[in-house]
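For practice. Any example?
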Amino acid sequence: MYRRLLWGAALLLLISLIACLPRLLFVPWISQELEEFVASELRAESIAVDLPGSGWALLLGYIPKVEVQIGQGDVSGFPVTEAHLSAEGLRFHPWALFREQEFYYGGAQFLQISARVTAESLSEYFREQVPEVGNLVAEAEGGQLRIGGTVEVLGVLWNIGLSGTIQVKDRSVLAFVPVALQLEQAFAPPALVELLQEYFRIEVDLDRFPFPIRIVRAEVEGGGITLVVEEVLE
């Protein structure tokens, strides 16, 4: 009787170890490889991966659900202050991971990235895109972006205020569209208006992921821009 109890306890312990093995061994390893993959794709400074409920399916290259928190990255040079990636039914190539130590994305049943871009990040972005405008500061309020700065035209330094909106073009292109110009001076020469229209005709294609995407939401709100993109299932 005592021996049977020992065998039963040993069998129970073995089953528990087998059940816990993916969580103890595979989850940390695959989480780290996935972190490196996302960090490389988004050039992110911080990544946190959560694989809830993952088990032996990992050995087959299948992740039932994954959540990824992303901090300070960019896509095609466009800043991403913070983002959250959520995916279900994510597939990867396990043998490539085992042999080459590289994470190769193989698709998902659903994948969505919700991103936040603050006014501070937008200011830095516009300064890089439009170096001709000095002291440039971007603000996001009232559903519009407002850009202030100075620009020199015909030897005169102009203090400008430009308001604009963001639009989605061609499924994955985010465009800044100027709608109003304000000046401290009463008269704006045509050369200044043309220059500003040229300077701020800015578009960025966010389709730089290892899968096709579409922008499903792009709004100016809460002191920044909110973006939501999804993988296009083909």
